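Morning - alpha-D-ribofuranose inputs below, output right after.
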Amino acid sequence: MRLIVDTDTAGDDVFSLMIALTRPGVSVEAITIAHGNVGFAQHAENALATLEACGRGGEVPVYLGAARPLSRTPLAASYVFGADGMSDSGFPRAAQRPAPGEAADQIVRRIMAEPGEITLLAQAPLTNLALAVMMEPRIAQACRHLWIMGGTDNGVGNVTPAAEYNLYVDPEAAKIVLGAGFDVSIVTWTETLRDGLLTLDQLGELAALETPRSRFFMAVNRASLAFAQKTQGLGGSLHPDALTCALALDEALILDAEMCAVDVETKGELTRGYLSVSHPILPDAELADPDLPGKPPNARVIKSADRAGFFAAMKAALV
Ligand code: RIB
Ligand code: CA
């Protein structure tokens, strides 16, 4: 599999990259940086530090992209990941530097150069991808598959009851991407709550590996683990991006998925960034209101995944 990862690298974005960068047979061809979790420039530093931690320093270009949403004010999540997005671990600056070139432009060039070859893994607000679509709409057909971590699936969000972070931060970008015609799979926050938790026992097993990569993982995960325990009352840490990557790399880990009609709310007073996901118990929406447009399914929504398989994928990245 040939992959471009679009990321606001902090916390779990790091672990997703680690899975992709260490998996035999996966070629990470570029990492593109978006605004999001912490300071924009810090995301690039974190991606470069992750490449180094995986022994891949200097091998994968890191391109800077959009430093802010299409039209909204940037919104960080350093309350989850620490000011540096790495649990304030004080990692040294990596030797590799960002590559010349711009993220959306690179996404377009690389996908259009070899149609049907490149899979996109989007684990940040979707601004870079929206800019790429606006630059060259044909990337939607030329991209092999798009994986998105974002939104909710008729469940509660992590920013508001209606919305998950990546879609809340730049709903206009998400709307452009979801309307572009990609062959797309979505791992939602709802699915993350279901299958993306690494329990304290599992984290203990990862720590016991005592490898350089497991130590790096444990250090980076400290802040979000503390947040999940104290603020969310969970018995472990949540891994939306790493789960998405694990499923993208091995579809055998998908236990249940449905083709759904999905769209994003950009105007709602209480529902900014809400991902509307069609549901089988509502087949009669058009009967209820003839003005409701019937929408064909446009995305595969992951409903359930192999938790043990996800853990095995994370562990394999750390040995
Ligand atoms: O809501 C989860 C998403 O936002 C993930 O991509 C994670 O990195 C976070 O900040
Ligand atoms: Ca992310």
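Note: The CA atoms of residues 35 and 67 lie 5 Å apart.

O.
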